[in-house]
């Protein structure tokens, strides 16, 4: 099983990014997937989660700005991030709670 993130980049405050997490798995399988982030010098923190039943949860500071979603046909999970702030700068990871991706860097200035 592999998870591969993409979509990070450098943006100005107030702009948007959409991260993707491609999950290699068996066709028809769905998973709980979460996004975490780790800023320099800080611990990894929870950002958002989407359950198999599509229930979503968000860390308080991203509520109303970030949206997590899935495309089962593509085995891909997304994190749409709007109104980005400098404090959102971090390395963003996706996980199925067993495996982790390598991360994609988001820098907001």
Describe it.
The protein is mostly beta strands. Helix content is 0%, strand content 50%. The strands form two sheets. The chain has a six-stranded mixed β-sheet, with no helix packed on it. A four-stranded antiparallel β-sheet has the order 1-3-8-7, with no helix packed on it. Strand 9 (90-95) and strand 10 form a beta hairpin. It is globular, with a radius of gyration of 13 Å.
Oligomer: single chain
Content-based structural category: mainly beta
**What overall geometry do the principal axes of the alpha carbons give?**
globular
User: What is the tally of helical segments?
Assistant: 0
Give the terminus-to-terminus CA distance: 34 Å
Q: Any low-confidence stretches, pLDDT <50, length ≥5?
A: none
Q: What's the short story on this structure?
A:
By secondary structure, the protein is an all-beta fold. The protein has strands at residues 2-6, 9-11, 17-24, 33-38, 45-50, 56-58, 66-71, 76-81, 90-95, 104-108. A six-stranded mixed sheet has the order 2-10-9-4-5-6, with no helix packed on it. Strands 1-3-8-7 form a four-stranded antiparallel sheet, with no helix packed on it.
